[in-house]
Design goal:
The protein is an all-alpha fold and about 140 residues long. Helices cover about 65% and strands about 0% of the residues. It has four helices and no strands. Helix 2 packs antiparallel against helix 3 and helix 2 runs parallel beside helix 4. The termini are far apart.
Length: about 140
């Protein structure tokens, strides 16, 4: 019964719990790299849907990387040259994704400050006041 719960909808155990051989490990790292690169490409666009899809892809990459790392720690996987090349590619994509997310955060913080200054003025300390921004969800009773 517990195995059925672990299997989920696909009927397979979670990726991190599966046994991984060296060939599958390299393929898993390759898939993780590709997912991270697709996430990075999505984050170059301004759409909120792109950010949500990128988050899903990054989660997928993290699960695949964890499965490889667990296999390595347990001796089921070897750190071959192709696997290490995939790890370098994954790291590069992760760093680009991090820079994109940090830039997006800084951009939105800057606009939030500008909006606060325009709508609510400045505080006595000279910083933009917090603007009362409309929310995206409205609940009426």
């Amino acid at each position: 019964m517990p195995e059925e719960r672990m299997a989920g909808r696909t009927g397979k155990p979670p990726l991190a719990a599966r046994r991984v051989d060296p060939i599958d490990a390299e393929a898993s790292l390759g898939a993780a790299s590709e997912a991270a690169e697709r996430a990075c490409a999505l984050l170059r666009g301004p759409a909120p849907e792109a950010v949500n899809r990128a988050a899903t892809l990054l989660s997928e990459a993290e699960v695949r990387l964890s499965a490889w790392r667990n296999g390595l720690a347990e001796g089921r996987v070897v750190a071959s040259a192709p696997a290490l090349a995939e790890l370098r590619r994954l790291r590069s994509s992760a760093l680009r994704t991090r820079r994109l997310l940090e830039s997006a955060r800084a951009f939105h913080e800057g606009w939030r400050g500008a909006l606060g200054a325009l709508c609510a003025g400045y505080t006595s300390g000279g910083t933009p006041a917090e603007a009362s921004l409309p929310s995206r969800v409205c609940i009426r009773g």
